[in-house]
Amino acid sequence: MHCTDWTLMVLVWTRCIGIAYFEETIYRDPMSSVTFYCHPSQTSKSMKTSVQYIWKLVQPQKTEILFTTHANLTSDKYYFLESRYRSWDLVLKTVMKRHAGTYLCQEFVRTGIVTLENYTLVVNGPPELSPNIPWLNTVPVIEGNTAELRCDVTGSPPPSISWFAMEDGQIRSIHIEGHILQIRNITRACGTKYVCIAENRLSTKPLLNMTFDLDVQFPAQILLYDANSPRRDVTSAILNRKLGMEVILRCDVMMYPEVTINWKIRNLKNSQLRKIASYIPGVGISEHDRRKTVYTFKFQVIPNKKVTIFDVIFRTDKEETFSEYVCETEGQQFPSTQKSIKIEKLP
Description:
Blueprint: H1 3-17, E1 22-28, E2 34-36, H2 42-45, E3 52-58, E4 63-68, E5 79-82, E6 89-92, E7 101-109, E8 112-123, E9 125-129, E10 136-142, E11 147-150, E12 153-156, E13 160-167, E14 170-177, E15 180-183, E16 193-199, E17 208-226, E18 238-241, E19 246-256, E20 260-266, E21 273-280, E22 284-287, E23 296-302, E24 307-315, E25 324-330, E26 338-345
Parallel strand pairs: 1-8, 10-17, 18-26
Antiparallel strand pairs: 2-6, 3-4, 3-7, 5-6, 7-8, 9-12, 11-15, 13-14, 13-16, 16-17, 17-19, 19-24, 20-21, 20-25, 21-22, 23-24, 25-26
């Protein structure tokens, strides 16, 4: 005897003595039909008085009594009772999505309510997003960490899930399947959109998908140089300039998310440091130096490269311009970063 035969016998035996009920999950396509079988228990058959029966539908938001022994309580025309051969079977002629739930056949005896049958009806359909789950998600992750993207879709039959990534405006398969995509040791090169597509035999086009915009966050990296110089040497910490020359000190900051960038000056004689201007994301430039005739400022944001350029422009026609210039980032996600360059006067 196979173990499946043995299990079936146990279920029949427990039903006959009336101490347990049969549980079954039934899967049906929309527009098909289903019959839920129910037979009186051995206890009720031996009773001389009449026994009351009910069919009940239990759903997440409500419970509805469909039939009792003496009344039809449902307005749904697709249900009817088949009561031949001393059975009390419930027939659903046309299955629809609203019919999904748990169907209980119960009888009322002297000792209380006895559940005779317990059926869970799952109505097949195309994949769906889980409740309260948006189709577009922004996922922040710090560079070097692990990102876990979860495709929260359901469906019956269970859908197959494939993952794709956006590259140069095109979607390409990354040959990974399943509900979860895990990306370890994230780099900023991973900062793109990822799409999961769910499909089963009842899917219709366009196929259900979820999109994840992976925002890779990383600390600031600063390049500091004279943009007015042909060489644009980013390694030099000292620039020698003659009196009356124009200087464009460029602070080239690569970072995400955007942070405040400050320009400060350290006096070479007394080492005092003072702030002359700030670039504030979403606001623009805030100048702190009252001598606006000495310095002017410009900024440029390049979103696709995660770069912000903040220039301080001046002429070395005053002694105070021969100083140390400090570009400093100021944010909450990562520690402050700074880089400095000295302008020294040529004889």
